[in-house]
């Protein structure tokens, strides 16, 4: 029951340190949620993109060989485009009006991703121009892309002390290593289940933690 419920003005109410602390913590949580990326959404979207995209590529190369490879490739491309669109929209939301060190750190992470993927595409293009077999080119594109994602996740998470994202980055690198060992076409299955599954598991974990936190508050 608050001071207003007792018919007293807020100014006349005695100071309640517990109520003030709870109010400060609620306001802090609201502010942090507004400024933080929607990791639950982002992990879910990228998990679905990996599961769908690499799953299509694997099925086309194994049980659906009558399907033209271009169709599976378009499916993978659209899945990545949707995930990138959601990520970009969330990044704009987070950094709208944000200034200072936080904005600079977020921009640097974005540049790290961009530089890494540009180098991946250049490397794969050189392999293709050099006459590397198609499975080698395809596996290089997939494995190098996950290498960039895993490393940037781990480095940025270590800097921000985010254990879940750090662990997810390590998991992605582990899935990438297994994919390289099994080779094509089963590498696509590993990336779909282990890569996509890792993102989806992280999304579910955050959803459960949020539900538990809401139940406690």
Quick structural gist:
With 217 residues, the chain is mainly α.
Structure notes:
The chain crosses the membrane at residues 41-60, 66-88, 109-128, 140-159, 166-182, 188-208. Keywords: Membrane, Transmembrane, Transmembrane helix. This protein is mainly α. The chain has one domain (38-92, 107-212). Helices cover 82% and strands 0% of the residues. It has 7 helices and no strands. The longest helix is centred in the last third of the chain and has 31 residues, at 186-216.
Termini distance?
17 Å
Biggest β-sheet, characterized? none
Shape: elongated
Number of domains: 1
Would you identify the regions where 5 or more consecutive residues have pLDDT less than 50? 1-5
The H-and-E topology, N to C, reads as: HHHHHHH
Key terms:
about 220 residues, mainly alpha, transmembrane helix, membrane, transmembrane
What secondary-structure arrangement, pairings included, does this model have?
Elements: H1 17-35, H2 39-62, H3 69-95, H4 101-129, H5 134-160, H6 163-182, H7 186-216
């Amino acid at each position: 029951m608050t001071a207003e419920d007792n018919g007293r003005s807020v100014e006349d109410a005695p100071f309640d340190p517990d109520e003030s602390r709870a109010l400060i913590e609620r306001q802090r949580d609201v502010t942090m949620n507004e400024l933080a990326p929607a990791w639950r959404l982002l992990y879910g979207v990228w998990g679905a993109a990996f599961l769908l995209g690499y799953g299509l590529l694997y099925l086309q190369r194994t049980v659906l060989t009558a399907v033209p490879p271009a169709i599976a490739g378009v499916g993978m491309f659209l899945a990545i485009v949707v995930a990138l669109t959601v990520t970009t929209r969330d990044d704009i939301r987070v950094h709208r009006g944000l200034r200072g060190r936080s904005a600079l750190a977020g921009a640097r992470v974005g540049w790290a991703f961009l530089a890494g993927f540009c180098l991946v595409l250049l490397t794969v293009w050189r392999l293709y121009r050099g006459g590397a077999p198609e499975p080698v080119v395809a596996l290089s594109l997939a494995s190098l892309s996950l290498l960039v994602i895993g490393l940037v996740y781990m480095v940025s998470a270590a800097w921000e002390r985010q254990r879940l994202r750090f662990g997810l980055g390590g998991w992605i690198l582990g899935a990438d290593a297994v994919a390289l060992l099994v080779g094509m076409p089963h590498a696509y299955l590993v990336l779909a289940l282990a890569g996509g599954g890792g993102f989806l598991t992280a999304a579910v974990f955050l959803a459960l933690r949020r539900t538990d936190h809401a139940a406690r508050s």
